[in-house]
Amino acid sequence: MHGGAWMLYSVFLDQRLVCFAVLLFFIPVGGDYCPPSCLCARESGTVTCRGGEHPGVPGAIPDWASTLILRGNNLTTLPRWAFCPSGARRPLVTLSLSHNGIRVIEPHAFQGLTSLLVLDLSHNRLVSISPGVFSGLLELRSLNFNQSLAPLAAVQLVNALSGAEHLRSLHRLDLAGNHLTSVPLGIHMSNLHTLVLTNNSIQTVGRDHVATLYQRPRMRIYLSLNPFWCGCELEAFCSWLRNSSQVPDVGALVCSGPGARQGVRLEHLQEEELGCADQDLEAVSYVFLGLVLALIGVVFLMVLYLNRGGIKRWLNNIREACRDQMEVYHYRYEQDSDPRLANVAV
Fold first, then answer.
1. Chain CA centroid to CA 266, Å
2. What is the DSSP string of 52-114?
3. Do you find a cis peptide bond into 258, omega within 30 degrees of 0?
4. N or C: which end of the chain has fewer CB within 10 A?
5. 62, 33, 27: which is closest to 46 by C-alpha?
6. 166-188 burial by CB neighbour count: b if 16+ within 10 A, else e?
7. Whole-number Cα distances in Å, 333 to 29, 320, 337, 343
């Protein structure tokens, strides 16, 4: 190679090395890389990804991130180990997945998030929640499903929570705006302090649910914006409301019907206003009528038994009389059917 050509090649090679060194200096290595189209704030430990450009969970989440916000994306499905694909644990404390159109959450989707305290799944369109979805969330304190559940998903969620014994640290559960028709008190979580059920479709709270509420005096339950039907079935619940401080929004609980009770606050309703006394009296009346009819029946059977001999003779006499009468009819029939016998009779 000529001397001039070699000199040009050396200059070109040096420039490439300099550029490569600059890139190594400015591009973070390891877990410091910020995913594309995301905003990373290392000072607060927050990674925010918005705007629909992420069809799945970003894979290159920095190791220093304690808060991950995915909002307005098109996730649709949260697969197994969605946030820890390599199987390693991730030190997230807050995970917000609202407004992402999530429909399906597969088992162990949050596996590896052993430090997670807050999980927000509000404003999604969930139709399927697997039984083992909360596996591994040992430290979870707050769970939000506000306006996210289809009817079947609501049932699946209650089943998943009922079987999630490891959620022993859960303090707050938000199920507002999901068209629930009953209070999901089958969730066996002794540390649950706050249950939000506002803006659902709950019309009544039965005696069995009231008994469960008596057993959980530490729990606070929010029930405003539900269409309570103030009939006799609500008597036990109204009585509990008047003697309990477990419903912070009790002043906003009003009747949706029937009739004149519409708009009346539940805590002001008395037993006589619910019509329970009339129903109890009617029930007692039916019971008394049944007892009287049963007594009459027993007396009638006793009379029949004591007069069984006379009744038997009376029945025999009637049978003999009927037999004689039938013989007369038979004789006359034979005469009418034989003309010769008819002439003899004349």
1. 23
2. S--SS--S---TT-SEEEEES----EE-TTSS-TTS-----SEEE--SS---EE-TTTTTT-T
3. yes
4. C
5. 62
6. ebeebebbbbbbbebebbbbebe
7. 122, 20, 6, 14
Instruction: Name which of 37, 101, 98 is nearest 71 in CA terms.
Output: 98
Cα separation, 260 vs 280, whole angstroms: 21
- Where helices occur in the chain by DSSP H, the ranges are 3-26, 151-162, 207-214, 235-242, 276-306, 308-337, 339-345
pLDDT digits (tens, 9 = 90+) for 63-100: 899 999 999 888 889 999 999 887 778 899 999 999 99
> Which pTM value belongs to this model?
0.71
CB 34 within 8 A of CB 40: yes
Q: Give SS3 for 22.
A: helix
Q: What is the dihedral of CA 112, 117, 119, 120, to 10 degrees?
A: -150
By DSSP bridging, strand 220-222 and strand 194-196 are parallel
What CA–CA distance (Å, rounded) separates 51 from 71? 7
Name which of 63, 25, 28 is nearest 47 in CA terms.
63
3-state secondary structure of 265: strand
Q: Per-residue b/e over 319-346, b at no fewer than 16 CB within 10 Å?
A: eeeeeeeeeeeeeeeeeeeeeeeeeeee
Tell me the residue type at 243: N
